[in-house]
Amino acid sequence: MTLSDALTLAIARLRAAGIEDAPRDARLLLAHVCGIASDRLTLHLRDDIPAATQDLFSDVIAERLRRQPVSQLIGHRLFWGRPFRVTPDVLDPRPETETLIAAALEVPFVNVLDLGTGTGCILLTLLLERPGTRGLGVELSPAAVAVAQRNRADHGMEGPMALSQGSWYDPVDQQFDLIVSNPPYIAAAEMPGLAPEVRDHEPHMALTDGGDGLGCYGAITAGAATHLVPGGVLMVEIGPTQGAEVVAMMLAAGLQAPQVRQDMDGRDRVVSAVKPR
Questions:
Q1: What CATH topology corresponds to 76-274?
Q2: Distance, CA of 230 to CA of 177 (rounded, Å)
Q3: What's the pLDDT at 248?
Q4: Are 32 and 74 in contact (CB under 8 A)?
Q5: Which residues, other chains included, contact 58 with Cβ-Cβ below 8 Å and sequence gap of 6+?
């Protein structure tokens, strides 16, 4: 059996199970088990597939049929053009979160606080895009902190990026130019309707606050003024229906000039506001 034969069979299995973008998933998984860069897989499709590799490929396709995300199966996900390690202990970096990166890179900052850092992809991306800056990532889950530590090491950022385990501002004792966060914002009532890849394989504490999806914004906005320098910016990712409520929270916390930014699909995605000078 060639790699092409194995790929064809895998695509058929994934399609029969209703997996969206079955060809993409099958190619990524085949490249992974073969140890080939995904963009070079085409060059090897006529090669015979060793029996051990064929068995491994069959196993990962079986896991994908159980709706385990591709990123968890191959161990990483691209975000802002860079690979970040992914495990079941962290939220899978998503393309819409790049809207937060784009917005943050439009404001000046030297030091950044990332609340609920997860993989660390947001903070690491900002620091890598702005050499000479420094940041702190705070994360409640010890297992997620371990993943962020590995991503930090992968990108050689042990110096500029610090990590603390704790809840929101609890371990923070300084002020920052910029505070960013992608907090759990899915309402508990919405959880059953999520795709199985998300609902069954990503950490619920990174997805939902267990209530209406707005609870974490209350904690983040309430502590923002204390932990921002004058003129500093708070910037958070939101669900597409939460803009007005989060703007109101920021204003109530004494922040000014709130703005709502849309993602590539035209949905409200990021809210920001400024601490008065």
A1: Rossmann fold (3.40.50)
A2: 8
A3: 98
A4: yes
A5: none
